[in-house]
């Protein structure tokens, strides 16, 4: 059986300022947080996964995160394969891009903070719908899984990608998927047991 792990990219300046990033944005990782890759406990977690291959969303923040993880593995242990995967990209929600959560709360004054991401992800009908997004992520996940039978792999992607996986793989409702992933931390590692 394959062991499939998921990690959310590390922080960008937009994350720190509570801005929404989107599908094609090109944000680099925040320099002040790059030292967190040197954390010995984080490095032990990475090395303990015995990874065969790393797949990553092609956006800059996920690419940089994947390359830093590859660097850790190859510094202390062995070489590891790495591959870009278009299907792991974040959802396209254009009209909400570059807005802060504060601005969204002003646009939707009667909505709680926890419901904001529901609005721009689930009720988004003008760009990539939740249905199209979750199906795209799921198809890519199945291909990755089938290409790596009996191998340990890591997916480096986005909070939205993790939500879609919860929804499609574990049959959680939309609400449960959103709730379980709303506070997924940057660099938090999840094992996908399926």
Query: How is the main sheet built?
Result: 5 strands, mixed
Strand content: 5-15%
Name the overall outline.
globular
* Number of DSSP E strands: 5
Ends distance? 9 Å
CATH H-level name... which superfamily? Answer: Phosphoglycerate mutase-like
Q: Quote the average pLDDT.
A: 80
Q: Number of domains in the coordinates? A: 1
List the secondary-structure elements in sequence, H or E: EHHEHEHHHEHHE
The class by helix and strand makeup works out as alpha/beta
CATH architecture: 3-Layer(aba) Sandwich
Offer a quick outline of the entry.
The protein has 194 residues and is of the alpha/beta class. The protein has helices spanning 13-16, 40-48, 60-76, 101-107, 116-121, 130-147, 159-169, 174-181, and strands spanning 3-8, 53-56, 81-84, 152-157, 189-192.
List the keywords:
five-stranded mixed beta sheet, Rossmann fold, about 10% strand, about 40% helix, about 190 residues, globular
Please write out the topology.
Elements (H helix, E strand, L loop, with lengths): L2 E6 L4 H4 L23 H9 L4 E4 L3 H17 L4 E4 L16 H7 L8 H6 L8 H18 L4 E6 L1 H11 L4 H8 L7 E4 L2
């Amino acid at each position: 059986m394959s062991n499939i792990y998921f990690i959310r990219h590390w922080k960008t300046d937009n994350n720190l300022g509570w801005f929404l990033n989107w599908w094609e944005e090109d944000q680099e990782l925040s320099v002040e947080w790059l030292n967190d890759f040197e954390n010995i406990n984080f490095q032990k977690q990475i090395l303990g996964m015995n990874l065969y291959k790393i797949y990553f969303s092609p956006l800059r923040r996920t690419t940089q995160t994947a390359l830093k993880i590859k660097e850790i593995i190859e510094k202390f242990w062995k070489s590891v394969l790495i591959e870009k995967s278009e299907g792991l990209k974040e959802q396209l929600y254009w009209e909400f891009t570059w807005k802060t959560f504060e601005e969204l709360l002003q646009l939707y004054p009667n909505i709680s903070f926890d419901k904001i991401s529901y609005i721009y992800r689930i009720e988004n009908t003008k760009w990539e719908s939740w249905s199209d997004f979750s199906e795209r992520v799921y198809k890519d996940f199945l291909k990755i899984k089938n290409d790596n039978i009996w191998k340990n792999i890591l997916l480096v992607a986005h909070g939205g990608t993790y939500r879609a996986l919860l929804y499609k793989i574990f049959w959680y409702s939309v609400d449960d998927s959103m709730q379980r992933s709303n506070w997924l931390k940057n660099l938090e590692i999840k094992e996908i047991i399926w």
